[in-house]
Design a protein that fits this description.
There is one protein chain. This protein is α/β, with parallel strands linked by helices. It folds into 2 domains: 312 residues, Vaccinia Virus protein VP39 (Rossmann fold, 3-Layer(aba) Sandwich), CATH 3.40.50; 55 residues, 2-Layer Sandwich (Phenylalanyl-tRNA Synthetase, Chain B, domain 1). The chain is built from 14 helices and 17 strands. Strands 7-6-5-8-9-11-10 form a 7-stranded mixed beta sheet, with helices on both faces. Strands 13-12-14 form a 3-stranded antiparallel beta sheet. Helix 1 packs across helix 2, helix 1 packs across helix 10 and helix 1 crosses helix 11. The longest helix has 18 residues.
């Protein structure tokens, strides 16, 4: 049932996922203990972020991971990021047994404590410098407990895999679960991520705390956010200033952020929020994190994903897609050629990690369409 696997610098026991295949693909949720190899980048990126955070903190710190599964994430934090002690929990007996076995396999009995516990109970009973919420689905039910348990200046990381909810396929569920109205369409990936950040920020404000994102990104089937939690009113006031709404006008293609909900929206415009309207990452911290990356394949792959998020932290609200820009022109311009043309004419233009056909630019949409019409920027 279990086989030795290798991930990062760690060997560990995990279910033989070749026995849990449906429709030609692996279904990790069917295994007796959850382990998803598709989340390896998530774990490697987290190691890089936690390593940099601990260096800046000046001590090794204590980490809580209430959804440990096989224990691979907790073990990697100790062996690769330098975490001093981990409190790892899981409500499932089989997961606790396998995680304990893996802790023994890696000689970390004194550094990783594995206990059977409900996630919110585990968080309520422990104060930690770092908390990693990586559930199957939504992190929403556990954010309040995490914020209460984390120390001032602590690092909170959370994963969300309910992208259909956050990206607007189930609007009412997004309102119930996250308290925000999503926006389905060209911008749904960024709007969904900002909705998740906004939810965490509003939860923090309820206890007079504030948050500052260090890294927030989308990859395939999940969102990942890492924020510093500061339990002081000054940080809370700054957090309030970074909450607002996003608007998108399908006719004019205008988009942007506003601090207050607009009354009487007209002209085919849609509003999403409340959500996070500030920067979704700290470029200085990310540069520092990248400087600590080891020259190892799995860390280099993770570093490329982090690098890809850097343009999305520029003060340029939201991105355009070449599909929407070319929709009324009968052509889809090349993102690379459009970006090059803009930069040659002194206009800011960057990639976005949210989509390969996206472009972040300070140019007005009417001007972009004019450029495409006058100088067809197709791949031919």
């Amino acid at each position: 049932m279990y086989v030795i696997q290798r991930e990062g610098a760690v060997s560990f026991y995990a279910p033989d996922l070749s026995k849990y295949i449906a429709g030609g693909r692996i279904e990790p949720a069917w295994a007796p203990v959850f382990y998803n190899p598709a989340m390896v980048n998530n774990r490697s990126i987290s190691v890089i972020i936690v390593r940099a955070y601990l260096r800046l903190l000046g001590r090794n710190g204590v980490l809580c991971e209430p959804f440990t599964g096989t224990g691979i994430r907790s073990i990697r934090y100790v062996k690769e990021a330098g975490v001093e002690r981990v409190i790892a929990g899981d409500v499932d007996n089989a997961a606790v047994d396998v995680a304990l076995r893996n802790v023994e396999l890696n000689g970390l009995r004194d550094q990783v404590k594995v206990i059977r516990s409900d996630a919110n109970v585990l968080l309520a009973n422990n104060k930690c410098d770092i908390i990693d919420i990586d559930p199957y689905g939504s992190p929403a039910p556990f954010i309040n407990s995490a914020l209460l348990s984390i120390k001032h200046g602590g690092l909170l990381c959370a994963t969300a895999t309910d992208l259909a909810v956050l990206q607007g396929s189930y609007v009412n569920k997004a309102i119930r679960r996250y308290g925000f109205r999503p926006l389905r369409g060209f911008l749904s990936r960024e709007i969904g991520l900002r909705g998740l950040l906004g939810f965490i920020a509003r939860q923090a404000l309820m206890i007079d705390a504030g948050v500052k994102p260090l890294l927030a990104y989308w990859e395939r089937h999940y969102y990942r956010v890492c924020v510093i939690v500061s339990k002081d009113r000054g940080s809370a006031r700054e957090t309030v200033r970074n909450l607002g709404y996003a608007y998108y006008c399908s006719e004019s293609l205008r988009r942007g952020f506003i601090n207050r909900y607009p009354i009487g929206v007209k002209g085919g415009c849609m509003v999403s929020g409340p959500l996070w309207i500030g920067t979704i990452g700290d470029v200085e911290f990310l540069d520092y994190s990248l400087a600590l990356v080891n020259n190892i394949d799995y860390e280099l792959r993770a570093a490329e994903i982090i690098k890809g998020t850097l343009p999305d932290n520029l003060p340029i609200p939201l991105y355009y897609t070449v599909t929407e820009l070319g929709r009324g022109l009968g052509l889809i311009p090349s993102p690379l050629r459009l970006k090059s043309h803009l930069m040659e004419n002194g206009i800011e233009a960057y990639d976005t990690h949210f989509t390969t056909e996206g472009i972040k630019t300070s140019a007005e949409p009417w001007w972009l369409i004019r450029v495409i019409r006058l100088i067809p920027l197709t791949n031919n």
